[in-house]
């Protein structure tokens, strides 16, 4: 199984990018993992929020493959503890999808078509977080899950 994190737009703060990349490298010690960046839309001033979500959604859907298990990171999704998330990851990895794909949408969320394609939704927090922070926090949580599953001492409970 390969893990993929699809994100919309580049990270503008190099500090967040460096920390996120550090966790991605750590994750790769356990499973193949990659971040795929959907480019920011250009000329969005004339677009409504709905139109922007629609266009971003089209780009997201083009990045998906048949057989992907798609998890949307959405504030309305289910919340899990780190231990529960690790257990969930183990079940998904054992179920055998070719790719376990997590998606962080654009500033206005996901289009209806992306919601329909998603298999489930999870939330890091009910609080609003910057997309740059979500990337970093979520990469850390995947790394934490891998260390929990490997019985390593990174997570203290």
Summarize the structure.
The chain is an alpha/beta fold and 157 residues long.
Written account of the structure:
The protein is of the alpha/beta class and 157 residues long. 43% of the residues lie in helices and 20% in strands. It has a 5-stranded parallel sheet with strand order 2-1-4-3-5. Strand 3 (69-78), helix 3 and strand 4 form a beta-alpha-beta unit. Helix 1 runs parallel beside helix 5 and helix 3 (82-95) packs across helix 5 (131-149). The longest helix is centred in the last third of the chain and has 19 residues, at 131-149. The mean pLDDT is 94.
- Distance from N terminus to C terminus (CA atoms, Å) equals 27 Å
Structural class: alpha/beta
The CATH homologous superfamily corresponds to SPOUT methyltransferase, trefoil knot domain
Number of helices: 5
For the CA atoms, what is the radius of gyration?
Answer: 15 Å
Strand-residue proportion: 15-25%
Poorly predicted runs: none
The CATH class: Alpha Beta
- Oligomeric state of the chains in view: single chain
What global shape is seen? globular
Count of distinct structural domains: 1
CATH topology: Alpha/beta knot
Identify the notable features of this structure and list them briefly.
about 160 residues; Alpha/beta knot; 5-stranded parallel β-sheet; globular
What is the element layout, followed by pairings?
Layout (H helix, E strand, L loop, with lengths): L1 E7 L5 H14 L5 E6 L10 H15 L5 E10 L3 H14 L3 E6 L7 H6 L2 E3 L8 H19 L8
Parallel strand pairs: 1-2, 1-4, 3-4, 3-5
